[in-house]
Amino acid sequence: MQLTGKINVNSEVGTLQRLIIHSPDGGIGKVVPGKFKEWLYDDTVHLEQMRREYNEYVKLLLWFLDPEKIPYILECERTNKSGKQPSCFKPGHPDYFNSDKVIDIQHLLSQILMDENIRRRVISAVCAWEGCSFATEQQLAAIQNTGDLAKVLISGVLYFADGKEKEFVFAPLPNFIFTRDIGIVINDHLLLGNAATPARERETLLMKFITYYFIFNNNREKVLEISESSDFFLLEEEEKKDYKTSVEGGDVMMIAPNHMLIGCSERTTPSAIDSIIHKVFSNSATGIEKISVIKIPRKRAIMHIDTMFTHVRKDTWVLFGRFSEKVMSEKNNRQYEYYLHLLNKEDAEDYESIQVIRYHKPLNEEYQPGKNYTQDISDRILGLESLLHNISIEDFGVAPGDVKVIYSGNNVFPYDEREQWTDSCNLLALKNGVVVGYDRNEETAAAFRANGFDVIRVQDLLKKFEQTALTPAEVENTLIVLPSAELSRARGGAHCMSMPLLRSNV
Fold first, then answer.
1. What residues contact 469, with CB distance under 8 A and at least 6 apart?
2. Do 45 and 31 meet the contact criterion of CB atoms below 8 Å apart?
3. Among 130, 153, 164, 244, which residue's CB has the most CB atoms within a 10 Å radius?
4. Is the pTM of this model over 0.85?
């Protein structure tokens, strides 16, 4: 088995042609307050409303990536009388739209489970990982329909024959909606994510099977996988915190054909970054010559670099202004904060600092493991804005005076912090200059308008498409906003909810 079609991503703004998503499954509806911290949630969500919001996102993706599916979707919605999730939006349901361009990860999982040998391996691996009883393993093995089995492996819930919930067999995966974190396409290679928290480790396991037995079944040499160091397991528990190897896709951006960004954050560790640099530089087939590492504060509010900035257009970025060079400079020039030492902040000097480090190895140069490939860029890159300007100028040929930075919440307190929290910087580019965000970030939308962008609600845009008043090809320089009353509660935006597999060249 193999995913048909080309896989290649060499920027964040090339026209999106194929991606992996995951519609909100029943596991999200199982999150209770007592599990917030463990399951990485900040609030309970209304699942049906969240699904309605997500459906707008899916329809938008289909209009841009697979418009032939739209008539079927519209007819499905028209004939739906239940008032709940239409069957065409349910992965595993016979009526599901099954696009090969907008692909649900549950559907991919169901495909690999059709192979009996793989099926047994997946069930055994998941049950071993979750500590299931032999009886539970037998129950899973007895599920014949692969769509039903995939649903159980993701939701953690067994079902009766009539579809009603029977019992939990293991924890749900409420964060699986954020497919960005589990795999990152680097040109025509794929870097497998390695979850930072136990709540997402089964996601990593399932994605590994999907990658090796479906997406890259016939070219596994293109899969980049990192793991713990050989002596990691000899470390004491406290030491393991410093040396754990974890990377999540929200911290990795394929920014240009030869240039990738990696965030050193709450979720992506120095050990993982070290491993990635060696793997990428030692494999010239990846096409990567430059790796820019951005060290950010280890905080829940800014868990990944894509919660701080994303690429909008070759010459335009959106950025959380709290970490702009102006603000950071003001912080550095104000009175010294002795209280940080009194709070036992050993790294008081770097408590909220941003650091950018560049590594460079020319493709035509043979890799030397013992060589230091650190590149001194202090004269060009002082912080985040300098980095973003540098990328637009050096990687995309933009004139220095034409680079724009749009700030979260229009860089006005408290809207900057409020809207960063609700993912104003976490935008997905459908193509150069056309991005998707949330409707609740009104001040950020105003900043986009001030910089020459149109802002339109997804419902209004879809209506124009349906009435043939506009086509996706005609949409330019636009921020499309999704309904987000419930989606935003999960702490992830459109960028998080996407794993691009294919983009055209910019």
1. none
2. yes
3. 153
4. yes
